[in-house]
Design goal:
heterodimer; A: about 290 residues; ABC transporter involved in vitamin B12 uptake, BtuC; two-stranded antiparallel sheet; two-stranded antiparallel ribbon; about 5% strand; B: about 325 residues; mainly alpha; globular
Chain lengths: ~290, ~325
C-alpha cells in the first residue's frame, strides 16, 4: 500500500512538472501548427532569469515572492515571445513543416548559446523556498511540500488554461482561428494578432514554468533539452494541440514511468520512451484523436 | 535535356579538388587541425546519408544518432572482443548494425507515421537507444568503451599500417570518398530517381505501380547503413565510443550541415560540414558563441534562402547569365 501510494505520488509529480512545460508547447502546436523545439530553450531562460532575480533578493524568499518571481520570469519570456513571433514565427506560415521544425531547432541553439554566454557553463543548484522546504507525513508516506506544490501548480495551470480557452473572448477567438484561419480572416478577425497573443501566452507559460520548476533542477545550459523530450511526448500523445489531451497524456506517461521505475529501478526514463513509442505506433494521432483542437 | 556526362565530369572535378584539399591537410596543419579535418570528412558523408532521406525520399529524421552510434558501438565491440577479425569486416558489421536498426525501426514506423510524427518517432527511438547504452554495463554505461585500437590491414600482397593518426586520417579520406561515390551512383541510378519521384508526388508514383513503402524503406536502410559506416570509421580515429555519439544533439548535426550547405544539392552537406567545422574552430575560445553563430546562420538560411548556400550561389549565377532586360525569376533572395 505504501509503495503504491508513493509510486502514484511520484508519477503525478512527474506528470504535473511535465505538463507545466508542455502546456505552452501544446498551445502553439494546436494554433500555429508549429512543433516548437525552442520551447525548452525559453523554459530554460525562464529558470535562469528567475535565478538572477533570486540572487538580487538574496536567498530565503517567502512563498508569495517566489511566485512573483516566477511570474516575472514569465513576463520576460513572454516579451521574448513577442520578438520571436515578429522575427521568426510570422515567416514560418508558408514554410514546409520540416523547415519550420528546423527553424525552431535553430532558435533552441541560439537560446543555449545565449544562456552559456550570459550565465556560463557551471551547474547551479537552487533550494526550494523555506515555506516549501519541508515534508508532510501521511501514514508512513512522506511527501515533500515542494512536490505537492508543483502538483497543485500543474492542476491550476490546466484549469486556468481551460477556462481561458473556453470562457474568455480571446480564448474563443483563438479557438476560432485554430479551427479555420482562412474563414476567420474572411470574418474580419485580426488573425495575425491572435497568433501573436497565442505565442506570447505560450512563451510566458514556458518562462513561468522555468521559474516554478527551477528548484527541482540544477541549472545548466543542458536544461533546455531535458524537459523538451518529455514535453514533446506529452504534446504529441495528447493530440494536435489538445490541452485536455496533453493533461491526460502527462498523467498516463507519468504513471507508466513511475511504476516502471519502481519495478526496474536500474532503468529510469526508459519506460516513458517505450510507452510513448508504443502508443504512438498504435494511435499516431494521439489519445484524443485528430478532431480536438485547443 | 541534361548532359549527364558533363554533369558527371563536373562532379568528378569537384570531388578531385576536395580530395586534394583534404590530402594536403597533414602537410600544412598541426595534428589538432588534422583531427578536426578527419571529423569533418566523416561529417560530410554523415550529412549526405541524412540528405538521402530528406531530399531523396522526403523523410525527416531526427534520430540519425541511433545509426551513427549503433555503427560506432558495433565497431568498438568488434575490435575489443575479436581483435583477430579483419578490420574491413568490422566496418561491414558496423554498417550492417545500422542497416538492421533502420530495418526494424522502418518496418514499424514507416507504415504508421509520417511528417512531424515520423520525425518525433525517430527522436524517441534514438533517445531510447541512447538510454539503453548508458544503462548497459556491457556497453560501458556512461563511460563508454575506451582504448579502441587502430588497425592494420593485411591485403595478402602488402600490409597497411594505420596505427598512426596520420595514416588513419588518410584512410578516412579514402573511405569517405568511396562512400560518397557509391551514394552518388545510387542517387543517379534508376532506383535513386524512383525514390526522388516518390518525394515529389507519391500518389502518381504509386499509380505507376511502385511500392511507396518498399522504396522508402530501402532509402531508410541505405541511409542508416551509411550513417553507421561513418560512426564505425570514426571510432578507431577517436579511440573511444561514448554515449554522447548516440545523443539526440548528434542527430541534429547532419540536419545542420545539409541545410546550411543546401539540401537540393549533392554537395550541400559537404559545404555545410566544412563551414560548421570552421565556425566551431573559430569560436572555440568563447563558450556559447558557436551555438549562437550556427543557430543564427541556420535560421537565416531557413527563412531567407531555403536552398542553402549552394542554392543561393546557383540562383545568383543563373540570374547573372540572364539578360538584364528579362524579368527576374519568381523566387528571389530579396524577400525580407
Amino acid at each position: 500500500m505504501y509503495d503504491i501510494g508513493m509510486t502514484v505520488f511520484n508519477g503525478l509529480a512527474w506528470a504535473m512538472a511535465t505538463f507545466l512545460v508542455a502546456a505552452g508547447l501544446t498551445l502553439i502546436f494546436g494554433i500555429l501548427h508549429i512543433l516548437n523545439f525552442a520551447h525548452g530553450g525559453f523554459f530554460m531562460i525562464g529558470a535562469y532569469v528567475s535565478y538572477s532575480i533570486m540572487l538580487g533578493f538574496g536567498g530565503g524568499l517567502p512563498l508569495w515572492l517566489y511566485l512573483v518571481r516566477a511570474m516575472a520570469a514569465g513576463v520576460v519570456v513572454g516579451l521574448l515571445g513577442w520578438v520571436v513571433d515578429k522575427l521568426v514565427f510570422r515567416r514560418l506560415r508558408d514554410v514546409e513543416d520540416a523547415y519550420s521544425l528546423i527553424a525552431t531547432y535553430a532558435l533552441l541553439l541560439i537560446c543555449g548559446g545565449a544562456v552559456t554566454l550570459i550565465w556560463g557553463l557551471n551547474y547551479m543548484g537552487v533550494m526550494p523556498p523555506p515555506a516549501l522546504n519541508s515534508v508532510i507525513f501521511l501514514g508512513d508516506m512522506f511527501m515533500p511540500t515542494y512536490t505537492i506544490f508543483i502538483i497543485f501548480c500543474g492542476v491550476a495551470a490546466f484549469v486556468g488554461l481551460e477556462l481561458f480557452i473556453s470562457k474568455t473572448r480571446t480564448g474563443r477567438l483563438i479557438r476560432v482561428v485554430a479551427a479555420d484561419p482562412w474563414m476567420a480572416q474572411l470574418l474580419g478577425l485580426n488573425v495575425k494578432r491572435i497568433y501573436l497573443v497565442t505565442v506570447i501566452v505560450s512563451f510566458a507559460m514556458a518562462g513561468a514554468a522555468g521559474g516554478l520548476l527551477m528548484p527541482n533542477q540544477s541549472l545548466s545550459p543542458e536544461l533546455g533539452g531535458i524537459f523538451l523530450l518529455q514535453a514533446f511526448g506529452v504534446v504529441i500523445l495528447g493530440g494536435m494541440g489538445s490541452i485536455r489531451g496533453a493533461f491526460v497524456a502527462a498523467i498516463v506517461l507519468g504513471l507508466i514511468e513511475s511504476f516502471g521505475t519502481y519495478f526496474f529501478p536500474q532503468y529510469p526514463g526508459i519506460f516513458f520512451l517505450l510507452a510513448l513509442g508504443v502508443i504512438l505506433l498504435l494511435r499516431p494521432e494521439g489519445i484524443m484523436g485528430k478532431e480536438q483542437t485547443a | 535535356m541534361i548532359d549527364y556526362r558533363a554533369r558527371f565530369r563536373s562532379n568528378l572535378a569537384i570531388a578531385a579538388c576536395g580530395l586534394a584539399a583534404f590530402a594536403v591537410v597533414p602537410f600544412v596543419a598541426n595534428s589538432g587541425l588534422m583531427f578536426l579535418a578527419g571529423l569533418v570528412a566523416i561529417n560530410i558523408v554523415f550529412g549526405m546519408s541524412w540528405n538521402l532521406l530528406f531530399s531523396g525520399a522526403g523523410l525527416l529524421s531526427f534520430g540519425h544518432a541511433m545509426f551513427f552510434g549503433g555503427g560506432a558501438y558495433a565497431m568498438a565491440l568488434v575490435s575489443l572482443h575479436w581483435p583477430g577479425l579483419p578490420f574491413l569486416l568490422g566496418l561491414a558489421i558496423g554498417a550492417g548494425a545500422g542497416a538492421l536498426i533502420a530495418l526494424v525501426f522502418g518496418v514499424i514506423a514507416l507504415r504508421r507515421a509520417s511528417g512531424v510524427y515520423f520525425a518525433v518517432l525517430t527522436l524517441v527511438f534514438s533517445e531510447l537507444i541512447h538510454l539503453v547504452i548508458t544503462k548497459t554495463t556491457f556497453l560501458g554505461r556512461n563511460d563508454g568503451l575506451v582504448g579502441i585500437p587502430r588497425p592494420t590491414i593485411e591485403t595478402g600482397l602488402f600490409t597497411l599500417d594505420l596505427t598512426s593518426a596520420t595514416a588513419y586520417y588518410y584512410f578516412i579520406v579514402v573511405a569517405m570518398a568511396c562512400a560518397a561515390f557509391a551514394l552518388w551512383c545510387f542517387q543517379n541510378s534508376p532506383a535513386g530517381r524512383l525514390i526522388q519521384a516518390i518525394r515529389q508526388d507519391n500518389l502518381r508514383t504509386a499509380f505507376l505501380g511502385t511500392s511507396i513503402f518498399g522504396w522508402q524503406l530501402t532509402a531508410f536502410v541505405l541511409s542508416g547503413a551509411l550513417a553507421a559506416f561513418c560512426g564505425a570509421v570514426m571510432v578507431p580515429f577517436t579511440q573511444i565510443a561514448s554515449p554522447e555519439i548516440a545523443y539526440w544533439t548528434v542527430s541534429t548535426q547532419p540536419i545542420l550541415f545539409t541545410l546550411l550547405g543546401g539540401a537540393g544539392n549533392f554537395w550541400g552537406p559537404a559545404v555545410g560540414a566544412i563551414l560548421f567545422g570552421a565556425i566551431d574552430y573559430g569560436t572555440r575560445a568563447m563558450h556559447g558563441l558557436s551555438e549562437i553563430t550556427v543557430g543564427t546562420l541556420l535560421l537565416l538560411v531557413v527563412l531567407l534562402i531555403p536552398g542553402g548556400l549552394l542554392g543561393f550561389l546557383q540562383h545568383r549565377r543563373q540570374k547573372k547569365r540572364r539578360k538584364p532586360t528579362e524579368p527576374a525569376p519568381k523566387r528571389t533572395e530579396a524577400q525580407p
